[in-house]
Amino acid sequence: MTPLIPVLLAVALALVAAATPAIVPSGRSTTRTARARPSLPRPGARSAAVVVALGAAMLIGGAGGAALGIALGVATWVVVPRLQTSADRSRRLELARQAPLVVDLLAACLASGASVEAAVAAASRAVPGAAGDVLSTATAALRLGADPVDVWHTVGELPELAGLARAAARSAATGAPLATLLPRVADDLRATHRSEVEARTRTAAVRLTAPLGVAFLPAFVLLGVVPVVASWVGTLL
């Protein structure tokens, strides 16, 4: 079974690499932009989990190997989709920061009498970067005659734009005026972004205490604990 280990590892790495979503650079608008997700899709995670589970079961063998394989497979299934590259994190942060502005621009364009397609096109030109790429792709799809509900469902695959996508899809399906739905969406996006920023700030503050503890702990031990222990030892002797 030992010669199979490098093969199984190579297959697992290949599956993970193939399933990692492509990040489209700023300024480019393709269909993959709107479909990009911040985490590894489930099909890639499932394939990697199967390979890891089989590899562990074949390597260990017996009931113990089967149990270990199942445990490692489940862990791979859960952990791999949560893996993010620095480009993924930067894209998510940029989308979260730009989303309220995009919704405000769409609401202003619609209030001035523009169509949804024209409003989306104007917002995509006004907001460069990740949000602009997504809106540019949506504009191209709408101009080609794609179903607006499908287009907005695709945009909604990005969590940062899910609120906008739900409102736009509801408006396209029911005929409800989108301009009346967007102000509340913008407020919700701002509140969500503010909460996330505050959470990151609190997390950073907590993480900063670890280096301080590591720096002060040796001094505390040398100046506070060692003299006390030395005096006790001297008294006992």
What does this structure look like?
- By secondary structure, the chain is an all-alpha fold.
- It is 78% helix and 0% strand.
- The protein contains 10 helices and no strands.
- It has helices spanning 4-19, 31-35, 42-60, 62-79, 86-111, 116-126, 130-143, 148-155, 162-174, 182-236.
- It is flat, with a radius of gyration of 26 Å.
- The relative contact order is 0.09.
- Mean pLDDT is 75; it is low at 19-43.
- This is Type II secretion system F family protein.
- It is found in: Cell membrane.
- It comes from Longivirga aurantiaca.
SSE layout and pairing:
Layout: H1 4-19, H2 31-35, H3 42-60, H4 62-79, H5 86-111, H6 116-126, H7 130-143, H8 148-155, H9 162-174, H10 182-236
Membrane topology: Multi-pass membrane protein
Main location: membrane
Pfam families: T2SSF
Task: Write out key terms for the chains shown.
237 residues, mainly alpha, 78% helix, flat, transmembrane helix, Type II secretion system F family protein, T2SS_GspF_dom, cell membrane, membrane
Q: Could you estimate the helical fraction of the residues in percent?
A: over 70%
Report the span from N to C terminus.
Answer: 62 Å
Radius of gyration: 26 Å
The number of helical runs is 10
Number of strands: 0
Listing every helix as H and every strand as E from the N terminus to the C terminus, the arrangement reads HHHHHHHHHH
* Overall 3D form: flat
Please, what is the average pLDDT?
75
Spans where pLDDT lies below 50 across 5 or more residues: 19-43
Global structural class:
mainly alpha
Major β-sheet, in short?
none
Beta percentage is under 5%
**Oligomerization:** single chain
Transmembrane segments: 47-80, 210-233
Membrane topology: Multi-pass membrane protein
Keywords: Cell membrane, Membrane, Transmembrane, Transmembrane helix
Subcellular location: Cell membrane
